Amino acid sequence: MVKPFVPQLVYVEPGALEYSLGRELVAKFREMGIEIRKTTSHNQIRNLPGENDFQRYRIAKSTLVVGVRKTLKFDTSKPSAEYAIPFVTGCMGHCHYCYLQTTMGSKPYIRTYVNIDDIFDAAENYMKERAPEITRFEASCTSDVVGVDHLTHTLKKAIEFFGESKYGKLRFVTKFAHVDHLLNAKHNGRTRFRFSMNDDYIIKNFEPGTSSQDDRIEAAKKVAEAGYPLGFIIAPIYLHDGWKEGYREMFEKLEAQLPKTATKDLTFELIQHRFTKPAKRVIEKNYPMTKLELDESKRKWKWGRYGIGKYVYTDEEQEDIKNTLGNYIKTYFPEAKLEYFT
């Protein structure tokens, strides 16, 4: 079992100490004997230890910055929600294919924000603008918030905030099984708890530092038993020798272990593996030994939403993925909803 994340190094923005959560976290890390340094801004961490890029990248991924989120204008670029809601930026996992490697560039460290009441106030304003329509907030666009929440409990507070809201719903996705502290949160069914799930080959080869397939399924079972609406993002769907069998085994395990109550309101989101030219360069630099297949000649070129092209599977391969996984969902979870395939 992957141990819950503990930072090797903590930076604190001066403004963070004006918030009770900031003071609480600093006291907690002092007690844990973790080195704490000051920084002028959570966006400006300089002089990270390490003799080369490879070392600095790995140290950054185990560095936590306690800061204040000043930009409270929420992004709206996810197909699964109206707005992103920012509690954390960055991730301690080492998934070779992850888009955060390129979007975060030279700042791969993890940032947690302590001005959560400001964030809730901003969310409240977005909900008022759209009321009486329901507004969905995605808490994991730039992070795996569960991976750090055993330390901060920010997500737990957010679940309870949305649990009491009339027009808001929360959703997030995780690759971590450290969910025990979230099981007694008063969610009132207004938070969809999703797990990023994949076949064993992909988790073992491309997702180091994250929970195993069995541990994720066990955590999903606990979450379902706690009454949360449940979902799975199968991503990235990656073609390798035996992929159809690998995904079938994954669905069989899920079907065998999830309580029947969880299958009534279950969602799936399917995302094929894709990469951009800049992503390929960063992946090969950060994970030089990766087995990830990044051969442009085997892919189809597709323009992205923001004018950045990406390499996806060919039309025939996409059709095969959609049919294969779609049939598994129909077979094992006939009542589930497939939200999208992209």
What report would you give on this structure?
The protein is of the alpha/beta class. 35% of the residues lie in helices and 20% in strands. It contains eleven helices and 14 strands. The chain has helices at 20-31, 53-60, 100-104, 116-130, 146-152, 154-163, 200-206, 213-225, 243-257, 277-286, 315-332; strands spanning 9-12, 35-38, 63-67, 83-84, 88-89, 110-113, 135-138, 168-174, 191-197, 230-237, 266-272, 300-303, 309-312, 337-341. The chain has a seven-stranded parallel beta sheet, covered by helices on one side. α9 links the parallel β10 (230-237) and β11 (266-272). α8 runs parallel beside α9 and α9 (243-257) runs parallel beside α11 (315-332).
Summarize the structure.
The protein has eleven helices and 14 strands. The protein has 342 residues and is of the alpha/beta class. Helix 8 runs parallel beside helix 9 and helix 9 runs parallel beside helix 11.
